[in-house]
Amino acid sequence: MSIKTKPRRAALVVLGAGAVIVGGAYGGVALAEGTVASDTVEDNIAADQYPKPANPDYAINAKGLTYGTAAQANVPDEEPDLILVVSDAGAEGYVYTDELNPPDFKSPQEALAWQEERYASDFVLGVYESDGATKIGTFTIPKSEN
């Protein structure tokens, strides 16, 4: 009888040890997951503590206008006064940002009226040298097909 009980005991010991290992692994994962995230404000980094991108360093012309590419801007308010474009003839030049971008609207009706006027036909802007005065061509925004 003792011969038959030894394999059973050995099997139980192996199963028990396996259960402890597996349980320990799951417990360790649960413990690790519980320590990574925190619900307290003190433990989380506030958004204002993240490093902010540097403001673009645009060139400035004799009139005091900034000029460069809009791709340097982190947000639209950081765009230069003159934005680099490729004219209809293929030459690089600048358009005035305030002519390219929509104004701040006071009502939805004002925005709709602006859209109807702006996109009813091709919208053509002057293209200038970086001085903002010497016109070198045009930049066309095609009429909206919608």
Summarize the structure.
The protein is an alpha+beta fold. Helix content is 34%, strand content 19%.
Can you describe what's shown?
The N and C termini lie far apart (90 Å). The protein contains three helices and six strands; from the N terminus they run αββββααββ. The chain has helices at 2-36, 97-100, 108-118; strands spanning 59-60, 66-68, 82-86, 92-96, 123-128, 135-141. The protein is of the alpha+beta class and 146 residues long. It has two domains: 2-49; 59-141, no CATH class.
Count of discrete alpha- or pi-helical segments spanning 4 or more residues: 3
Helical percent range?
Answer: 25-40%
Average residue pLDDT: 77
Low-pLDDT segments, ≥5 res: 10-22
Q: What is the count of β-strands?
A: 6
Strand/helix succession:
HEEEEHHEE
Strand order of the largest sheet: 1-2-3-4
Distance between the termini: 90 Å
Number of domains: 2
- The gross shape turns out to be globular
Our estimate of the beta-strand percent is 15-25%
Largest sheet: 4 strands, mixed
Could you list some keywords that capture this structure?
2 domains, 146 residues, 34% helix, globular, 3 helices
Chart the SSEs and their pairings:
Layout: H1 2-36, E1 59-60, E2 66-68, E3 82-86, E4 92-96, H2 97-100, H3 108-118, E5 123-128, E6 135-141
Parallel strand pairs: 2-3
Antiparallel strand pairs: 1-2, 3-4, 5-6
